[in-house]
Amino acid sequence: MSLRAEAPPVTRIPRFTRAERWVHRTTALLMGVCVLTAAFLYVPELAQLVGRRELVVRVHEIAGVLLPVPVLAGLASRAFRADLGHLNRFGPHDRRWLRAALRRDKRRESRPAAKFNAGQKIYAAWIAGATLVMLGTGLMMWFTHLTPIMWRTSATFVHDWLALTIGVVLAGHVGMALADPEARHGMRTGSVSRDWAEREHPLWRD
Questions:
Q1: CB atoms within 10 A of CB 110
Q2: HEC profile for 44-85?
Q3: Which of 105, 145, 146, 158 would staple 110 via disulfide (CB 3.0–4.6 Å)?
Q4: Taking the C-alpha atoms of 170, 181, 25 and 53 in order, what is their torsion angle to the nearest 10 degrees?
């Protein structure tokens, strides 16, 4: 008989509902399609691999127009609306988290967080605003007869450079997710370990 003590069972707590996970996955899929098709349209080495450029353009346009739909549909979920409220509120602990991040202070006691930390709140606000700008400028480029040529030229400039910025920010977002398996588990299954929640989000009250 083995004398080795068994590890205590992991206590899990709910973090995201099925509706919230659906919104995240669908938005991520549409954003991925936008980024991938944009890469095939603007990177010369990739553009040479595409035989039907017009099809890629249409897929890019449709994915871009559909991008806000999952969030709008998610508003029917009370849990999703509650999380939007959490993301839109900044408190003293968030300012403390940001100061620690700027100082590269990685001590957990220096970075207090509720359900979402300050970095996640800033990312959510930025990507939401960037998506709306991309949608607006994209529509100007799509429906060329609706706006003057100067507007379309400016829209193209903003759209292209903001797309590059979004690509960099999304790469950082994915990198941080890859570095935190428990956070990914929470987004995939809806639950996280209580130990992780108390360590990473000590001010969160489930």
A1: 13
A2: HHHHCCCCCHHHHHHHHHHHHHHCCHHHHHHCCCHHHHHHHH
A3: 105
A4: 40
Task: Note the pTM of the prediction, 2 decimals.
Answer: 0.87
Condensed to tens digits (0 to 9), the pLDDT of residues 78-96 reads 999 999 999 999 999 999 9
Distance in Å from the first CA to the final CA of the chain: 40
- CA-to-CA separations, 113 to 32, 98, 108, 200, in angstroms, rounded: 29, 10, 10, 7
DSSP character at residue 107: -
Angle (nearest 5°) at CA 191 between 185 and 197: 90
User: How far, in Å, CA of 125 to CA of 95, rounded?
Assistant: 16
**What pLDDT shows up at residue 142?**
87
Taking Cα atoms as reference points, which of 179, 161, 169 lies closest to residue 31? 169
> Locate tokens 């990198």: which residue?
175
Helix (H) or strand (E) holding 124: helix 118-142
Considering all CA atoms of the chain, what is the largest pairwise distance in Å, rounded to the nearest integer? 82
